[in-house]
Structure of Electron transporter:
Amino acid sequence: MFAPLVIILKSAMGQTQFIKLRGKAIALHSKVITNVCNRLGIDRTERQNYIRMARDNGKILGLLA
């Protein structure tokens, strides 16, 4: 779903800039996930399990590039 957009963006920006942008986006996303889990009382281990499950589902569905 988003993979084609990511590939196009990567080729347009160049490898170095893309990696930096990707790192910033991942860090921001991680902060949001942590804040939501803290508000809901989800502990660190369970949060990590949810993140792994989402990553694996993203790979299966072809959402990761």
User: Anything to note?
Assistant: The chain has three helices and no strands. The chain has a mean pLDDT of 86.
